[in-house]
Amino acid sequence: MKRDLNKLAAEKYDLVVIGAGIYGVATAWDATSRGLKVARIDKGDFGNATSANSLKTIHGGLRYLQNLDLKRMRESIYERRVLMHIAPNLVYPIPVIMPTYSNKLKSRPALAAALLANDIVSFDRNKLSDQHKFMPRGHTMSKKKLREEIPGYDKYNLNGGALWYDCQCYNTERLLLSFVISAAEKGADIANYVKATDLIIKEQRVTGVKVQDTLTGDDFEIQSKIVVNDSGPWVDDILASLNGKAAEKEFNLSTAMNLVVNRNIMGKYAGGISGPYKHIFEDGSVYKDFRMLFFASWRGKTIIGTNHRPYNGTQDEYKVTEREIQDFLADVNIAHPGANIKREEVTYWYGGFLPMTGTNPKTGEVQLVRHYKFLDHSVKDKIDGLISVVGVKYTTARDVAKKTIDLVARKLNKDTPKSKTDITRLYGGEIDQFEEFMNNNINVKPYDLDESVMRHLSYNYGSALGDILQYGEQDKNWVQKLTGAEEVLRAEVLHGVKDEMAQKLSDIILRRTDLGSAGNPGEPTLKEVAQIMGKELGWNEAKIKQEIEDVKQIYIPA
């Protein structure tokens, strides 16, 4: 996968996709897989913004039962199964536990009814042949059993618990990148750090995009028959000059923050625990209530979220603040006093945006947009050749991408084949039985790599792990661990630069590898990675120092 900007400028495409979040990369993959000529750009790196903020959970939509939204629940259940099939190395079932209380809506009988309904609605959840993707029925448990499963948890009105199964993603950054690589291997022309600065409009039709290489400042144009604006929180920036007037906002910004705690609090479970909510209005009045906090056990750590707030600033200036971390942590410790999480145990935090309809005037709570939105601008603005998409959920991005390309094909009057992205394995996903695949890799022990490294490679690269191990044939030093790293090999850095378009140190630390996904990997690791990248990309010592400093700043809150 090469970053070829000359080709982007020279070709004429059926489709240009603006945005490399999960919606943008899934759209480019679906379009390419159906034979369309596709370019895909983003002003930053792949998945470096909103899609980077995640609880690592692939939801089946149990919460939609509250509103009897069975259609959306079925969509989520289906897409959860699809992701387990097309990315079997990255997506797997996880048990989810929730305490029950004497409150009627949160009681054991109420949750038992919800779990039964969930089992019925998800009747086809176990159609995959991989036995390790099996998702058992949900059930309730006693107060004693709940306390055993969540050590240290107790509430005065606790009367038991509920258990069901959902899915978790081992590495959401690698999942997103699997869509990117799959599209590139199928023929899509892809580039990161290419910013869309304006639309090219001729005779009330969008015919391409004016862009800038943000690494060099060079400007050029990309010609296309259709442009899909999949730029997430920046969707309105792309539309700002449409028709020469201020457009109606399509993405009202709210922030979403999740904390990473350097300790496993929930054992083998994810869990929903009732926590406090407080809002202070401008007149000084206070509203207090409860909200659901989600604790997700993830690779020996715990991700806790989500804290939602309205946001009035610009997207690029947003950064999680120390005050926000401390305030949310205080609420978490009230929700689960037995966890007793210290500030120094919070090693990282994910911050991003979600679209909201506004805030509840009575409670001050952020009201999130519930459904994705298509905007065909030939209808809305009388300008053809432009489609904007506002997504709301990571799990269903592939389905929305399919529907987007269905619309694109109709607008192009092309008889494209039906989408098969629900059954086509992604890059690294050619695995039928993942546990057997991983155990075989561990037993083979190429280059005498230990079990933890082989597990790491099996999860992150799946059937494509040979792309990493091949570097050992050139020089066995490449299949040695990086300084200060427990699992990541030097070859992963080299591969990230040569074949996965890493342009900055942060690309490797946060998105090509998982070195920094739970906290700062440390000075020795940063230096070695920067030295490897610098040799490949021609960085001088000043550039290397600046790249290291830029990464360090990521781990310092505002």
Structural class: alpha+beta
Number of helices: 18
Mean pLDDT: 95
Oligomer: single chain
Shape: globular
Distance from first to last alpha carbon = 35 Å
State the total count of DSSP E strands.
18
What percentage of amino acids are in beta strands?
15-25%
Q: Kindly provide the radius of gyration, computed on alpha-carbon positions and rounded to a whole number of angstroms.
A: 23 Å
The stretches of 5 or more residues where confidence is low (pLDDT under 50) are none
Note the main sheet: 10 strands, mixed
Textual characterization of the structure:
The chain has 558 residues and is an alpha+beta fold. The chain is 33% helix and 25% strand. It has 18 helices and 18 strands. Strands 3, 4, 5, 6, 11, 12, 13, 14, 15 and 16 form a ten-stranded mixed beta sheet that branches. A hairpin with a 6-residue loop joins strand 15 and strand 16. Helix 2 packs across helix 10 (397-412) and helix 15 runs parallel beside helix 17 (523-537).
Defining traits:
eight-stranded mixed beta sheet, ten-stranded mixed beta sheet, 33% helix, single chain, 18 helices, 18 strands, 558 residues, alpha+beta
Brief write-up:
The chain has 558 residues and is of the alpha+beta class. It has helices spanning 5-10, 22-33, 70-86, 108-121, 143-149, 172-185, 235-239, 322-335, 377-380, 397-412, 434-444, 451-461, 466-469, 471-474, 490-499, 505-512, 523-537, 541-554; strands spanning 12-18, 38-41, 57-58, 91-101, 139-141, 158-169, 189-191, 194-201, 206-213, 219-229, 253-261, 270-280, 286-298, 301-310, 346-359, 366-368, 373-376, 386-390.
